[in-house]
Design brief:
This protein is mostly helical and about 60 residues long. It is built from three helices and no strands. The chain is elongated. It comes from Portunus trituberculatus (Swimming crab). This is MADF domain-containing protein.
């Protein structure tokens, strides 16, 4: 099922960005950095899975 593919990719992309999930990271508390990283992840997901574009991004 393609939802599983998307879920796996989300976990993979977030895992690569330690600042998002690891409170021991010096940049963990940098809200604007984390928002930027999530925006990048959303853009990557939109490129990889164009059929889900309306469900990603959430800044409407």
């Amino acid at each position: 099922m393609w939802f599983l593919e998307i879920e796996k990719k989300i976990f993979e992309l977030v895992r690569e960005e330690q600042h998002i999930w690891d409170p021991r990271s010096a940049l963990y508390s940098e809200k604007s950095l984390c928002e930027s990283l999530f925006d990048e992840i959303a853009a990557t997901l939109q490129e990889l899975f164009p059929s889900m574009q309306s469900g990603v991004g959430g800044k409407d």
